[in-house]
Amino acid sequence: MTPSGASDDGKTSGQDATASPGLAPLLSSLEAAAHDPATPAPQRTLLAQALDALRMKQREAETERSRYRNLFDAVPDPVSIIAEDGTVLDLNKAGMQAYRRRREEIVGRNINVLNPDLPRDHLVPVWETLNRGETYVIEVTNMRGDGTRFPVEVHSANINFDGRKSIVAVARDISSRREAELRYRELMETLDKGIVVHNRDLEIQYCNGAAMRIFGIREDQRVDQELALDRWHIVDEDGREMARHELPAQRALDSGQMVESVLLGMYHREKKHLLWLTATSVPQFAPGASIPAQVTTLYSDVTELKRDSALFDRAQSLAHIGGWEWDIGRDRMYLTDEAQRILGAARSLDTLDSVLLCLREPDRRRLRGALELVTAGGKGFDLELQGSQADGHPFWIRVIGDAEPGDPGASRITGTMQDISQDKQAEETLRIQARTDPLTGLMNRDAVLTELGARLADPERERVAVLYIDLDRFKMVNDVLGHNAGDELLVQASDRIRGAVGTDGMIARFGGDEFLVICDAGDDPHLPEKLAHAVLGAFADAFRFGKDEFAITASIGLAQAPRDGQRPQQLIQNADIAMYDSKHRARNGWQTFTQELAQRQQDRLQIETQLRRAVDNDEFRLVYQPQVDLRNGRVVAAEALIRWQNHQLGELRPDLFISHAETTGDIVRIGSWVLREACRQIADWRDQGLGIVRVAVNVSYRQFAGDDLADRVRAILAEFDLPGAALELEFTERVLIEDAPATLRTFADLRQLGVVLTIDDFGEGYSALNYLRRLPIHGLKLSPLFTEGVPNNRSDVAVCQAVSAIARSLGLGLVAEGVESEAQRQFLLQLGVPVGQGFLFAPGLSPDEFARRLSGAPLERVLHA
């Protein structure tokens, strides 16, 4: 550790060279007492002994400080001690020389003085690494006092410095190494040999310009992708396919020895291009290592040298490429062995007609016409043709032909013939896959749009109907059981729809949990309704996932051409509108599209449009519904309720616009406004002398899922100088199942602020006790769905009793919503529910009305921690 009194040169500062300035008064006091005649002799002896011990310890400390400084300054590389917040605590002489600054220009300032480009949170990964007991190493560019930059490699480790958790950072100037690397790279780029460097996993680390030219790689392409082994067919000089362990680079890595001048044939599967290369691979070892860390391979392109050799012919065969020549004057056709094999003829094919007989009739005419065009002096051709071998096996071939160069009479036409059957099969497979949903095996969105467009364009199909099917409560399965269960539900649902529709319609998965059924209603006008009933019936039985069972139903919208649209998107959109109405009226049903539904959809769009501007136009206001002690009616808190007065649409109920705001995402901005306005009103009541009123604010899950909810609440409380307990945040049960670290951290941060945390409408959703006990919440709110039925409805009574028992067992507060009668109040009191709100006490009140209610009955405020 740095001595507190050590100066830059290692000597002790201050007046006394043997005593630290901090101990000087103590030493003087002890010495005076030890020599004072009034001090009893035994005490003077003890004081003298203590004085000697202190001086000895002081000298030892000075020696240790001097040794630290000497060692610290002896390190030839810049060394700095950095506090947790990034403040430089000490710097050695090498650091002052490297940065060309005095010690006082750096010590005591943030590390940014040495590197102004560091990000704000640059110490986070450093501490994460050091806390695991590891050393953190990074290359950065530091700055000297004159503003010049130089690269350094920084090694950081933990150190306890004067009792503080700190970092010791050693920065080594790597300017020379960078310059050497640059010169090495420049040398590599000037060579005409292709150079590729692989690591031990044969992953590419470097590729020079010559190698990129040899392999045909453009600057905008990724070298590792273009040289991936699965893109190349690699053969040896005999045309035999080479395994990975036989490749020169892998052999050099395995043996640790250089592999020289190996001839490789490299055939690009997509470009259908063959290269012949010689490769020499040299293993490279890290200092002190016994096995290679990487391998450098030098490539030379020898394709031109092998063009006319037997090796080239073998490679052509391996790539299923045959050669042919047609002697026009003698009508003689010459085919290589590979060309004969591709056509699969039972006998030798030596005339043009014998070759044409291997093709389908339309393709015979195409090839003959192309040959005649070349004979007449036209350009060469490149055709894809289909035919059959002698045993009936079908094939696809690519035939390329042109007149012999330098033959003015075009007496000979030569070319190649390649078997592309596998490519065509792959194309067909891709075509099918492009039209198929991979999860359910049904048609996908693009395929059904194409098919629907074709049917609507067919004049013989007068009435085409669309059934738009959306699964009810699908998201619940995804949230509770996970996406794997959600995928399994979609597979089971598609099977049930298949069984219900049969051959009467075409089925597609349109996206997410939505399906389309397309049917022709020309012969049976009631077919769409019949299919809708059949699909609903198929969902009557519950879905099982292990021990869990879920009742999943469907909502269906029907639209029919030409009445409801004559274009695919229009017809589907109207079916979607009908489905949306069915889902919101009563799930597990179907609805036919009408113009009235279209108008409702237009109204929804208008609401959403106005909603986006409502905050900016100052159209929202808050009312406050009192929360009262059920025993005596004393107001103990309030809940903030939002109201919207739009200049075009008038007053809109929250249940009309909140769901739209959730869907569009506007709820986040609206919720932020509500949060700030509620806190502003609390501060206003406080300034009126009414004390601190706790106000509950509903928080959307979209708000909660954001990254800055706790920071936002902290800032608003600070803005109005409010304690956290003045604010209560009410969340839906959905947050109970989101036990991700971010969720738990947000709840912990809010609770640390003192904010009261409550689960709203508890019991309506799909919460469970194991989720409930994990979150640091304060209370529950009993939904009005259950309080409205007490004390007469046995089911509601049972739910209220259960929720009350849960709250008591977990030590949580409980507030009942929707209290509208004296009988309900009495029941809840007997149940042990302490607080309630509802029209029995007051509706939502304006701020002034609420203030009058408080001033009429003084508020006894107890803010719960």
Description of the molecule:
This protein is α+β, with helices and mostly antiparallel strands. The protein has 5 domains: about 25-175, PAS domain (Beta-Lactamase, 2-Layer Sandwich); about 175-310, PAS domain (Beta-Lactamase); about 320-425, 2-Layer Sandwich (Beta-Lactamase); about 435-595, Alpha-Beta Plaits; about 610-855, TIM Barrel. About 40% of the residues lie in helices and about 25% in strands. The protein contains 31 helices and 32 strands. The protein has an 8-stranded mixed β-barrel, surrounded by 4 helices. A 6-stranded antiparallel beta sheet has the order 7-6-11-10-9-8. A 5-stranded antiparallel beta sheet has the order 2-1-5-4-3, with helices on both faces. α1 (about 25-35) runs antiparallel to α2 and α22 runs parallel beside α24 (about 710-720). The longest helix has about 35 residues, at about 40-75. It is flat. The two termini are about 45 Å apart.
Provide the fold topology.
Elements: H1 24-35, H2 41-74, E1 79-83, E2 88-91, H3 93-99, H4 123-131, E3 136-143, E4 149-161, E5 164-173, H5 175-190, E6 194-199, E7 204-207, H6 209-215, H7 223-226, E8 232-235, H8 248-255, E9 259-268, E10 273-284, E11 294-301, H9 303-306, H10 310-318, E12 321-327, E13 332-335, H11 337-343, H12 352-356, H13 361-375, E14 381-388, E15 394-403, E16 412-419, H14 421-434, H15 445-457, E17 464-471, H16 474-481, H17 483-501, E18 506-511, E19 514-520, H18 527-538, E20 543-545, E21 548-550, E22 554-560, H19 568-585, E23 589-592, H20 595-612, E24 620-629, E25 635-646, E26 650-652, H21 654-664, H22 667-690, E27 695-698, H23 701-705, H24 709-719, E28 727-731, H25 734-737, H26 741-752, E29 756-762, H27 769-772, E30 779-782, H28 784-787, H29 794-809, E31 813-816, H30 822-831, E32 835-836, H31 847-856
Parallel strand pairs: 22-23, 25-27, 27-28, 28-29, 29-30, 30-31, 31-32
Antiparallel strand pairs: 1-2, 1-5, 3-4, 4-5, 6-7, 6-11, 8-9, 9-10, 10-11, 12-13, 12-16, 14-15, 15-16, 17-19, 17-22, 18-19, 20-21, 24-25, 24-32, 25-26
Helix pairs in contact: 1-2, 16-17, 17-18, 20-21, 22-24, 24-26
